[in-house]
Amino acid sequence: MSGHKMLFSGWKLWTSGRSNLRWKSRLADGSSTKVCVVGSGPGGFYTAQHLIKARPDVEVDIYERLPVPFGLVRFGVAPDHPEVKNVTNTFTQTARQSRCSFYGNVDVGTDVSMEELRRAYHAVVLSYGAEGNRSIGVPGEDLAGVHAARDFVGWYNGLPSCRELRPDLSCETAVILGQGNVALDVARVLLSPLDILKGTDITQPALEALAQSHVRRVLIVGRRGPVQVACTIKEVREMVNLPNTRPEMVAADFEGVAEALKDLPRPRKRLTELMLKTALETPGENEQQRRNGASRTWGFRFFRSPVKILADSDRGGVAGIRLAVNQLEGSGDGAQAVLSGEVEDVTCGLVISSIGYKSLPIDPVLPFDPRRAIVPNDMGRVQQAAGLYCSGWLKTGPTGVIATTMNNSFDTARSLVEDLESGALNTSAAKPGSQSVRALLEKRGVKPVTFVDWEKIDSVEVSRGEAVGKPREKLLTVEEMLQVARS
User: Fold this and answer.
1) Spatial separation of the C-alpha atoms in residues 24 and 46, rounded to whole Å
2) 90, 64 contact by CB (below 8 A)
3) How many CB atoms are located within 10 Å of the residue 30 CB?
4) Which of 81-85, 342-346, 363-367 has the lowest mean pLDDT?
């Protein structure tokens, strides 16, 4: 059977008896539907993967500002969670497909405009994630020693823009604002024994700084209670079992929590039971022995909101943080934190704000909701902009884990396929796709990094890592990356 007939046969099955006349003529004239994805993180790759599987006539080009792909899988996932990073194997399979092309080192909005992309492609999917930080909104947040979690995570994960962070780890106590998984990742990295981190892909400068760290106590602060905590059981269990550390909880924070257990959904119930056990139960002999020998502590602090970061007038930087004491009104996920009028000061020298990432508009001509920090959309279709779609955190806000992003990206891809099927997305005219974009970039002196170029970078990083017993040693500047890619 010829290639065209095989493709036609598969398409026939997929469309379950729909008219194939339009598809048949496509094959005959060799044209294809050109789709461009902006951003090569999980949202971008999952969208591309689904489109390529769903439509044999679709070609997808992925544009990425950095020379390296994979977004938050590379720069956000904790170094000691290598199993989560295995998803890059799936993305690599997608990138190697003949109908998928990767163009790194292309800054959409600067090197090429959205208007130019929309002229070159039948559809454009925005999936560039959330690169901004939410402001704490309190006096003192600009002091040295106050960092956004995104920047701190980027520093130990090798994000080029965070290379110069140089956090001061000379203090004993660090306070993390927020109680999501990222907050626990940061706490774990701050307190992990160096021997654990040495075998990960954490950057060498971060490893050296952590080796000199004086941080021995980490408090993870949230405005609501144990029943509303935003992290998952896996991350809490990792903290509970972290070598050379012991938990330090406030028993009063758990008043009434045992009684609320029966009404909680199962995942939330298991998580709350673990926190209750950690906070209130007398540990067994072995665990007590382990805790007694621990030199580092961590703990949740519930019902607290930041009021002010206190300055160290002698040394500069942070001397502490003033926290408002809250009370809860309502119950469950809908409970609201209300100020009680009390405040308390906590001495610390490092404050890390983990209250959420934030998407930013990429082009002034695009619809953008600044309050929710997303592109307004209906199932991934950008409102009042035919042919424009969004996926990932730009679509939903920074919520969920990689599996959540996978599902929401598949939904966007399905919306795009439905629009192709219904004719709502006009593909009657041929589009040049990357051919015209590459010509524009060449004129502007921009040389894209292909996936083959990225594989050179990957190979060098893995080799450098092997030499020191790590899975990889990341290149830390765009200049180094481009040098290797073009070698």
Assistant:
1) 27
2) no
3) 7
4) 363-367
Place of tokens 């109680």: 179
Sort strands 132-133 and 357-358 into parallel, antiparallel or unpaired: antiparallel
* pLDDT tens per residue across span 155-204: 999 999 999 999 999 999 999 999 999 999 999 999 999 999 999 999 99
8 A C-beta contact, residue 80 and residue 168: no
Q: What is residue 302's predicted lDDT score, i.e. its pLDDT? A: 97
Does residue 300 surpass a pLDDT of 50? yes
Q: Which of 209, 248, 244, 220 is nearest to 348 (CA)?
A: 220
Between 204-211 and 149-157, two packed helices, what is the crossing angle to 10 degrees? 110
In the numeric block, which tokens belong to residue 286? 């072995």
| Rounded Cα distance, 431 and 123, in Å | 10
Nearest of 160, 218, 486, 193 to residue 354 by alpha carbon: 218
Q: What angle do CA 436, 442, 448 make, to 5 degrees?
A: 90
The stretch 443-449 carries a mean pLDDT of 97
- How many other C-beta atoms can be found within 10 angstroms of the C-beta atom of residue 56? 17
**Dihedral through CA 163, CA 93, CA 415, CA 388, nearest 10?**
50
Q: pLDDT tens digits, residue range 243-299?
A: 999 999 999 999 999 998 988 999 999 999 999 999 999 999 999 999 999 999 999
Q: Are 387 and 212 in contact (CB under 8 A)?
A: no
CA distances from 458 to 70, 74, 101, 321, 402 (A): 12, 12, 17, 42, 22
